Amino acid sequence: MPIERTLSIIKPDATKRNLTGLINAKFEKAGLRIIAQKRLQLTRSMAEKFYEIHKDRPFYNDLVNFMISAPVLVQVLEGNNAVKLNRDVMGATNPDDADEGTIRKEFAKSIEANSVHGSDSLENAQIEISFFFANIELVV
Ligand code: ADP
Ligand code: MG
Predict the structure, then answer these.
(1) Which has fewest Cβ within 10 Å: 9, 15, 56, 112?
(2) Buried b / exposed e across 27-46, counting CB within 10 Å, b at 16+?
(3) Quick check: helix, strand or coil at residue 113?
(4) Ligand 2 centre and the CA of 138: distance in Å?
């Protein structure tokens, strides 16, 4: 299985409730290694740019407001099949549809305030990692 890297964000609903440790434990238990991590207050323009792909969706403005409503933890996770493995650990976008034991099932408050972001492809992972991190910050 290929070793991959993926971009994770622990979202404001989770940082506000002091859940970063419990969520990181889920990643580590699944075999994902946190090789970079920082707590940031996103600016509106950063959040707009990060979610630009969704700019025509009806939830875009609310999503941007949510993402700047409190600090986030941006992270790079590394492991076998990390992109898909992380999506599996996260669970479905809507917590009502998420499997038992997933982060979103256990912690998400709503389809919007769903606790975590994870890259959806290897190509997007590389783009998203470089959005937040320099190579020198990725430490295995
Ligand atoms: P995912 O985060 O699972 O990849 P998407 O890329 O489709 O999901 O959406 C990005 C984020 O936008 C979601 O994680 C969620 O915070 C928000 N979102 C998605 N769909 C909706 C919706 N129907 N209403 C409100 N917010 C949404
Ligand atoms: Mg997505």
Answers:
(1) 56
(2) beeeebeebbbeeeebeeeb
(3) coil
(4) 22
Q: What phi and psi values does residue 133 have, to the nearest 5 degrees? A: -130, 145
pLDDT tens-place string over residues 43-82 = 999 999 999 999 999 999 999 999 999 999 999 999 999 9
Q: For residue range 11-22, list pLDDT tens digits in order.
A: 999 999 999 999
* Vertex 50: Cα angle to 45 and 54 (nearest 5): 105
What CA–CA distance (Å, rounded) separates 125 from 129?
A: 6
Q: Which helix (H) or strand (E) segment is 37 a member of?
A: strand 33-40
CB under 6 Å to ligand 1: residues?
54, 59, 63, 93, 111-112, 114, 117, 120
Mutation choice for ligand 1 from 59, 65, 66, CB with most ligand atoms inside 8 A: 59
The separation between the first and the last C-alpha atoms of the chain, rounded to the nearest angstrom, is: 18
Tell me which of 10, 50, 117, 118 is the catalytic residue.
117
